[in-house]
Each structure stands twice: as structure tokens, then as C-alpha cells.
Amino acid sequence: MSAGVDEEFLAELQRRVYSDAERGDELQDAAFTDYMRSILTDAGELDDGETAMFHTSGAKGMSASGFAISDDGEVIDVLVTDYRPDLSIRNMTKVQLARNFAALDRFVAQTEELTSVIEEAFPSWSMCSLLSEALPRALRVRLTLLTNARVKPPPPPAGTLHQAKVTYHVWDLGRLWRFEWSGPPREAITLLYVGVGS
């Protein structure tokens, strides 16, 4: 894809996020997360889920922006958002990518402890509470970075948490552009031909 296509698409994305944030009276990174959740749901990679922003700073900072738990509890998705309202293309470095996933890893590992320090009125408390109960029983945990930057470095290798296999995924500007350009996957159509006079 060309730089021109990227910049035009990014500008349209930023307008959408700004409009959604204004209409929903929410922060732009939350509006971007809502939008990306809808994209992942359309792509069949997320079971809808919820947006809940949580972030702490510092060397051992934690971060998460949403989650989804499958109906049978076997698959859990946890999201982290890296969004900026820039109109120029941003390339995420390997260090920045690692920092985002490290912050998400620390959040996932401490959801139970966080329920005792976050006020119950916040959506992030509900997220931590539900995840702390579901994670020990899950078979698959998918940690996904949502960003309006372009990401070239690969995500971390798979790991484990409790009994679950943990995998890392990235939805960046380029992947979003490709999905929007091609559209969601369509179901195969089977045609039955019946011969004339049969």
C-alpha cells in the first residue's frame, strides 16, 4: 500500500474516532477501542466483548483496554490500545511493541489483586473481576494490540498462563486498511445445478 493511501485512510479513521468520541462523550482512545472491537467482531476474531480502559505508568506499568470471554469460557481475549490522534503515519518500534505487550502481560497476571484496589464503580473493576475468575479455567488466551500506528516487528512468541496457551496478535493501521479494503470474509455459496428434464 502506498504512503498516500495510508495517510488518506488514517485521516478518515481519525475523523471517525473523533466523531464517535464526541457523540459518545468518551475519550478518543476508548472510541478507537470500541471501533476496533467492532472490526474484530466482524472479522470473526472477537466475541464482541467490552471496552474498559485501565492504565498505570512507570517501569512496571500495566495497561488494558477491553476484553471478551467466549460463551464456554475456553477462549479469552484481552486488548491493549496504543492510539494517538496524529494525522501523519507513525511506525511503532520493536521496543514500543514489546512495552505495550509487557504492560498487558502484567495486567493479565494481576487481575485478581487489582480487584481489591480498583473502585467497583469503574468498568475496569468489572473487567478485572470477570477475568480473574475466567483466566484459570481458560484454554486459550489471546492478547491483542490495537493501534493506529503501522507495526512491522513481529509480536512475542506464544507463552502459557495457568493451563492456557497465550498468543499475541496485532491489529495495526495496515491490517485495518486491508480488512476495510477487502471487507469481511464471506461465506462460501454452494450452488446445486439441476439438469433440464431431470
Mean pLDDT: 90
Helical fraction: 25-40%
Name the shape in a single word.
globular
Cα separation of the termini: 51 Å
Q: Which class best fits the helix and strand makeup?
A: alpha/beta
Strand content: 15-25%
SS field, number of helical segments: 6
Note the main sheet.
6 strands, mixed
Element pattern in H and E: HHEEEEHHHEEEEH
Walk across the major sheet and give the strand order.
1-2-3-5-8-7
Number of strands: 8
* Unreliably modeled segments: 1-5, 185-198
Descriptive report:
The protein has 198 residues and is α/β, with parallel strands linked by helices. It is built from six helices and eight strands, in the order ααββββαααββββα. Strands 1-2-3-5-8-7 form a six-stranded mixed β-sheet, with helices on both faces. β1 and β2 form a beta hairpin. The N terminus and C terminus are likely disordered.
Question: What is the gist of this entry?
Answer:
With 198 residues, this protein is α/β, with parallel strands linked by helices. 40% of the residues lie in helices and 22% in strands. The longest helix is centred in the N-terminal third of the chain and has 22 residues, at 3-24.
Provide key terms for this protein.
alpha/beta, disordered N terminus, about 20% strand, about 200 residues, six-stranded mixed beta sheet, 6 helices
